[in-house]
Design brief:
Dihydrodipicolinate Reductase, domain 2, 2 domains, about 475 residues, alpha/beta, about 20% strand, 6-stranded parallel sheet, about 30% helix, 15 helices, Rossmann fold
Length: about 475
């Protein structure tokens, strides 16, 4: 885990390019200083965002003692009513269903807000909830961009709120033991960690102009993002593949695997440099995120690589969604969220790791102790791991399409313990196996970006720094550093 003194230093660091400061007009939030949680009281919970991970939040909270879901919030009335029916059957009392989370913030009996909205809402929902005096369980990625993730950390510390990140691997004994084996020198000196997202993602269909589903308050759904029409056929979930709302698999899956990789490498801050390449290949559709991407992060003498292969893919050392640590005496492969194994340099099995945990229970323990250090995945950890995904995406989005020859030439100058050519060659084989001619189609190569991990800004690159934040749509504005 990150050094506490280092955390404090980073928490006090301010971005050069800050988002404009504003809060929803006319809202009178409950005093954040008032601690409404007693270890002996039943904890009152609101789940915000009820599709996808929202269902997991509901199940996770209903499985805990001393907890009651009192509010459900979603701008989709149909989804909300179905979830409310389900909760009523399971807990014996129907939660109040609302479309706007702010309606519940003045309720002093409400203790906890869990956030499972689309990504563009994550940070602001958490910040508003903590400013209103609530503790927060926040899905990954904790932010849609780097700046707002840091704001969420600052808000948690200022109001002394418990904020857990939904990177549940941090609570799984299998992952904990594997990472500890790496940190203890079990595979020797480790200078490279590789995260993998080899997950088939199909086309989301051609772009068009579509109406929101009946019963959806599209104004509330858009929230902080600037006004745009719906251009994808499937309204729910496929927002992941449009940068205006989502972060692609670099930001969807990446915060899980890069979190583990960063943990095992001992990184307590962002990288010092990043370069990324890839493309949306194999089909043309309404999506604009990369479905094939490699990001190479460097800090000191250590390297973190994250790979996205969104077409049909073969496993690497037995892993498709996982992490590989490469050591001087062997390697560790995590092949799932709960299990993995250590091997010697000849590939002989040395040790197995296995076991799942209860991330929600860990969160509630910290809520009751009022000590954020009891969390296995404090908001700071979530911010740093999400920010690695975001900075990789920034390099990619600033890139240009190049020939394979130019891509190979550029990567020969990338200082890395990873064999960049081997990674590229595997990527090219992946594309060829999926009948994608990379020479004809071309991939996008981003610039090598230098970053100051202390200030979390890029050196001498105004275009990259501008992408650390975004323009917000009033009144859904992420506050600046002085207004959290």
């Amino acid at each position: 885990m990150a050094n506490f003194t280092r955390r404090r230093f980073l928490e006090d660091s301010l971005f050069a390019a800050a988002a404009a400061a504003a809060l929803p007009a006319g809202r009178a939030f409950a005093s954040p200083e008032a601690d409404t949680t007693s270890p002996n009281d039943k904890l009152s919970v609101m789940v915000v965002g009820l599709n996808g991970r929202g269902g997991s939040h509901i199940g996770g909270m209903l499985g805990q003692k001393g907890v009651e879901i009192t509010y459900l919030c979603d701008p989709d009335e149909g989804v909300g009513n179905r979830r409310a029916d389900d909760v009523e059957k399971k807990q014996g009392r129907r939660p109040k269903l609302i479309k706007d989370m702010r309606e519940a913030f003045d309720d002093k009996s409400l203790d906890i807000v869990t956030v499972a909205t689309p990504n563009h809402w994550h940070a602001l929902a958490a910040i508003w909830a903590m400013q209103a005096g609530k503790d927060v369980y926040l899905e990954k990625p904790v932010s849609h961009n780097v700046t707002e993730g840091r704001r969420a950390v600052q808000t948690a510390r200022k109001y002394k709120k418990i904020c857990q990140t939904g990177t549940q691997c941090r609570s799984n004994p299998g992952t904990i033991d594997a990472v500890q084996h790496v940190l203890d020198g079990g595979i020797g000196e480790v200078k490279l960690a590789r995260g993998l997202c080899y997950k088939r993602r199909g086309s989301i269909g051609p772009a068009g102009i579509f109406d929101p589903p009946k019963g959806v308050d599209y104004n509330l759904w858009q929230g902080p993002a600037s006004e745009r029409p719906i251009t994808r056929r499937r309204f729910h979930y496929d927002w992941h593949w449009q940068y205006h709302w989502g972060n692609g698999d670099m930001g969807n899956q990446g915060p899980h695997q890069m979190d583990i990789a960063r943990w095992g490498l001992g990184w307590d801050g962002l990288s010092e440099s990043v370069i990324s390449y890839g493309g949306r290949l194999g089909y043309e559709d309404a999506g604009d995120v990369a479905n094939t991407q490699v990001a190479i992060h460097r800090k000191g003498d250590k390297t973190l690589v994250f790979e996205v292969q969104g077409l049909e893919a073969k496993p690497l050392r037995g892993a498709k969604i996982g992490v590989i640590f490469y050591g001087s005496k062997g390697y560790v492969v995590l092949t799932s969220y709960t299990s993995g194994a250590a091997f010697d340099l000849d590939g002989n099995l040395v040790k197995k790791f296995n076991g799942g945990g209860d991330h929600y229970a860990n969160f509630l323990k910290a809520v009751r102790s009022r000590n954020h250090e009891d969390l296995t995945a404090d908001i700071l950890e979530g911010h740093l791991s999400a920010a690695l995904a975001h900075t990789g995406t920034i390099s990619y989005r600033l890139g240009k399409k190049v020939s394979i020859a130019k891509l190979k030439s550029a990567l020969t100058f990338v200082k890395s313990d990873d064999d960049s050519m081997e990674t590229l060659e595997r990527t090219l084989v992946h594309l060829k196996d999926n009948k994608v001619d990379a020479d004809k189609t071309k991939m996008t190569l981003g610039p090598m970006l230098k970053m100051d991990p202390k200030t979390e800004t890029f050196a001498d690159n105004d275009a990259a720094n501008a992408m650390l934040t975004r323009e917000y749509r009033k009144p859904f504005v992420v506050p600046g550093p002085e207004d959290v």
